[in-house]
Amino acid sequence: MKTDVLVVDDEQDFTFFVKKNLEASGRFEVSVCTDATKAVERARQLRPHVILLDIMMPGIAGEELAVQLQAHQETKHVPVVFLTALVREDEAPTGGSHEIGGHTFVAKPVKIQELMRVLDEATSKRPS
Amino acid sequence: MRLRQQFSLWLLFIAVCVGLMSVAWVQRAHRIKAQFDAFANLTTPGLVALGQIKASALAQLQWAEVFASAEGDARVRREADEAVARERARYLEWTGVYRGIARAPEEHETLDTVERAGAALSARSVEFMAQAGQGQDLAEVHEELRKIERRFARVVDRAIGWHLEDAQAQKTALTQDLDRAARLSLASGAILALLAVGLGVFMAGRIARPLGRLADDMRVVGQGALDRRTAVRSRDEIGQVAATFNRMAEDLQQTTVSKHYVDRIITSMADTLVATDLEGRIQTVNASAERVLGRRAAELVNRPLSSLFAPGATAPSVSDLLTQGTVRNLETAYTASDGRAVPVLFSAAVMPDAQGRPAGVVCVASDITERTKAQEALRRAQDQLAQSEKLAALGRFAAGVAHEVKNPLAIIQGGVEFLALKVGGQDQDLRETMQMIEESVQRADTIVRDLLKFARPSTQKREVVAPEELVQGTLSLLTYGRALKTISVETRFAQDGLRVAVDKNQIQQVLLNLMMNALDAMGEQGRLTVSTAPASLPGEQLGCAIAVADTGSGIAPEHRDKLFEPFFTTKRDKKGTGLGLSISKTIAESHGGTLTLESELGKGTVVTLVLPLQGGPG
Ligand SMILES: Nc1ncnc2c1ncn2[C@@H]1O[C@H](COP(=O)(O)OP(=O)(O)OP(=O)(O)O)[C@@H](O)[C@H]1O
Ligand SMILES: [Mg+2]
């Protein structure tokens, strides 16, 4: 069974490549949302297995979205992996990830292998 | 009274004396002349008359004898008779003359006696002539005539003798008078001469004595006793000279006193003072200048002003100063005798002479060594501040850039991976190209990540560790990571028990930076020595020093100032970013520590990280 991933990022090109690269592995089904304000809505509709969330987006911050997702029954238990261009050195080495407060952080640019590993890890914790 | 008047008076006095004396002499001469006249008028005609009387009387007698003896010869008798008459007339005439000049009773007596004798003689001669014809004894008559003749001659001779005596007496008196007059004039001349000499001496004294005293006083003043005044007071020219001298001494005393005063001011001036002549040769130097320059005034006098300035320092030329007039607060440097350059604030102005013409230049300079030091320190502090501000700005900028750069990097990364999927691994060139793109993405990402360390100083997670633990941890990273190649590594740890409270990751990052730099500097060969030792930090704080020493290239002096600046690197070709040292320093300082560097070109470099010991502030 494929893993459903919702990518929320205003960088359309980035989401395009993430979708293509993830789906190329055959293990992921990727939906893209480039408008952060509609992200919660989409998540509630799609009920993905994991949400890949950019922290710095116009309109609304990634952390804020995460809080909102927590507030909805449908998305409450969906794991969130944060994507950021500004992850600190000690928090996430390039291509690496780090957990802060139960959330996983991934620094951009990220290699697709690493991303898949993080996503697998995140979804493996999922109560199923 | 003026000297000229005094002299005039003396001369007048002497002239009056001479005049008075001349009058006396003239009077005396007149008296003598009168005596002489009396002598000439009375005595001489008397004698002449008496002589005539005697001669005529005796001639009468003789002619009478001729008559008597010329018997029978009528012609002779007539002649004799006429001669007798003639002589008689002459006799009468001269007795008349004598009577006319006779004054003194003696003269009248003499005349009477002579006349009586003459009358007797005439009577006898007439008697004789009458008897001559009667044949009388001629011898007897003759005898009697001789007697009469002798008597008369005696009388007349007696009269003459008396007259001669009188003349003698008068001559004696006259001679005495003349002698007296001569003596008198000699004496008065001598007195006058003495008077003149005396007066001369007196006057000379009157002039010379005060002049001498004045000269003495002048000498005393000249020798420096400026309060000395002359006591010479008179209303003549000498008095005026003395008064003028006193005024001059007064002025001199005042100007000299004020000169001493000015000298003291110049000597005690805190600033250096140098005065030159028009050619720029040093003429005057004050004590401060001697002190600052480390030279005695005597060494400096007559040397050119330009010799005071340190090599390379701005040295205003005297000719420029003379045309410009003034220089104010020029920052330049003097050169001290030990070769040291003394920074000074230099001002100069043209010094006029009494007529207002330029006579030289007066230069005042304050030693601003201390100020310069303080300014230097301030400048360094400002530089540091500027640098940290620069870093802060850079950090904010970096945060913005990072976001803008990392997203495209992420897209490139994704794109490359997508391409790899699409074209697969068949094409070798394509694979290599994509490999290169990915590496470039990594490099760009590293730079941006380094930049970000300024943007958001990470929250330090401090823990208490032993410094040697930090060193060992870093060294093992090196060993596992980049190869140490043939470099030998030595560690020297100080006494046990030193502990620091640090963010282990950050400090290891610092040590890694330092060791990587050391390895870069050494290349293939060398020795890396990492040591720890107790050290002190500014503010009496105890610390631990971790020194990373290499035997590498060392650092060129011109690079030393820039080492800690972000992006300064000599390794552009080896992909150095130039952020290692600046980040390390920021981390060291954020721990309350320091990062310092010592290097000798060609020998090696020691970079020392000092961290505060655990328990201290910071
Ligand atoms: N141990 C050393 N010996 C000689 N030169 C050194 C040493 N440490 C630093 N330097 C000089 O200082 C420069 C700056 O060093 P810094 O670590 O800040 O940057 P970098 O090493 O050039 O680049 P990176 O950011 O990769 O560290 C270096 O380029 C080098 O010239
Ligand atoms: Mg370096």
Mind sketching the topology for me?
The complex is a heterodimer of chains A (128) and B (618).
Chain A lengths: L2 E6 L3 H13 L3 E6 L5 H8 L3 E5 L7 H10 L8 E5 L12 E4 L2 E5 L4 H13 L4
Parallel strand pairs in A: 1-2, 1-3, 3-4, 4-6
Antiparallel strand pairs in A: 5-6
Chain B lengths: L2 H67 L4 H28 L3 H28 L5 H85 L14 H32 L3 E5 L5 E4 L1 H7 L3 H4 L17 H7 L1 E10 L5 E12 L5 E10 L1 H55 L4 H28 L6 E4 L1 H14 L7 E5 L7 E4 H19 L4 E11 L3 E10 L6 H4 L19 H11 L3 E7 L3 E9 L6
Parallel strand pairs in B: 7-9
Antiparallel strand pairs in B: 1-2, 1-5, 3-4, 4-5, 6-8, 9-10, 10-12, 11-12
The complex binds adenosine-5'-triphosphate (ATP) and magnesium ion.
Describe the structure.
The complex is a heterodimer of chains A (128) and B (618). With 128 residues, chain A is α/β, with parallel strands linked by helices. Chain A has 4 helices and 6 strands; from the N terminus they run E-H-E-H-E-H-E-E-E-H. In chain A, 34% of the residues lie in helices and 24% in strands. Chain A has a 6-stranded mixed sheet, sandwiched between helices. The longest helix of chain A has 13 residues. Chain B has 618 residues and is α+β, with helices and mostly antiparallel strands. In chain B, 63% of the residues lie in helices and 15% in strands. In chain B, the strands form 3 sheets. Chain B has a 5-stranded antiparallel sheet with strand order 2-1-5-4-3, sandwiched between helices. In chain B, strands 7-9-10-12-11 form a 5-stranded mixed sheet. The model of chain B has no long low-confidence stretch (mean pLDDT 83). The interface between A and B is medium-sized, with 23 and 28 residues. The structure holds adenosine-5'-triphosphate (ATP) and magnesium ion. The site of adenosine-5'-triphosphate (ATP) has 21 residues of chain B, from helix 12 and helix 14.
